[in-house]
Amino acid sequence: MNQQENTSLTTAEFLLQIKAIKLEPNQPFTWTSGIKSPIYCDNRRILSYPKVRTYVRQEFSRIISDEFPAVEVIAGVATGAIAHGVLVAQELGLPFVYVRSEKKGHGMENKIEGVVESGQSVVVVEDLVSTGKSSLLAVEALRNAGCVVKGMVAVFSYLLPEAIAAFKKANVPLITLTDYNILIKKALSIKYISDSDLKSLMDWRENPSAWGK
């Protein structure tokens, strides 16, 4: 098993253990968008578990050092990835900024909080990638400020076809600590889910809007 496979499986197990991710194909969750889903992810829970929080920080830092060695600034996506981004920036000894989902309605009306200069290379830290829309809006804001976005790291991705296409179109390399496929593999191996749940879970990933109807 290589380093990435080990990281993916370990992260998936941690997320299940601390209930940052819940899988309930027979009692689906409803997302804000109205989509019915057999999975719910709240990676903010990571911050309450020092062992898991440290692991995520160390793995993010390792990946960024290996894949984006010339990075000058770490940027977190508000709000879920701010804390993770700060921890990674501290570990790497780099400046940190965060990107709001929209401009403040007062003061300087900043969308990017912190100090970043045109031409600087940036890696974006995200906690969760679903459709990719909010993540890529953060990239767009940084690019509009003149930054060179080298790529994005995230704790987890659902691997939705919509998101994969969007990141490819935006030319943003995305590296995740773990993803939906690995999570399902780990959940099966530890008997968190049964074989009978598998088809429903994979059907959802391929077409979330039609699932369960």
Strands, helices and their partners?
Blueprint: H1 3-17, E1 21-23, E2 29-30, E3 36-37, E4 39-41, H2 50-67, E5 73-77, H3 82-92, E6 96-99, E7 112-113, E8 121-129, H4 133-144, E9 148-157, H5 161-170, E10 174-179, H6 180-189, H7 195-206
Parallel strand pairs: 5-6, 5-8, 8-9, 9-10
Antiparallel strand pairs: 1-4, 2-3, 6-7
Helix pairs in contact: 1-2, 1-6, 2-3
**Overall number of structural domains:** 1
Radius of gyration: 17 Å
Return the CATH architecture.
Answer: 3-Layer(aba) Sandwich
Uncertain segments of ≥5 residues (pLDDT<50)? Answer: none
Q: Which class do the helix and strand fractions yield?
A: alpha/beta
Order of helices and strands: HEEEEHEHEEEHEHEHH
Terminal CA distance reads: 39 Å
| Average pLDDT, all residues | 93
List the strand order in the largest sheet. 7-6-5-8-9-10
Measured by DSSP, the beta-strand proportion falls in 15-25%
- The tally of strands reads 10
Biggest sheet record: 6 strands, mixed
- Measured as a percent range, the helix fraction is 40-55%
Oligomeric state? single chain
- Which CATH class is shown? Alpha Beta
General description of the model:
The protein is α/β, with parallel strands linked by helices and 213 residues long. The chain has a single domain (3-204), classed as Rossmann fold (3-Layer(aba) Sandwich), CATH 3.40.50.2020. It is built from 7 helices and 10 strands. It has helices at residues 3-17, 50-67, 82-92, 133-144, 161-170, 180-189, 195-206; strands at residues 21-23, 29-30, 36-37, 39-41, 73-77, 96-99, 112-113, 121-129, 148-157, 174-179. The strands form 3 sheets. Strands 7-6-5-8-9-10 form a 6-stranded mixed sheet, with helices on both faces. A two-stranded antiparallel ribbon has the order 1-4. α1 (3-17) runs antiparallel to α2 (50-67), α1 crosses α6 and α2 (50-67) packs across α3 (82-92). The longest helix has 18 residues, at 50-67. The radius of gyration is 17 Å and the shape is globular.
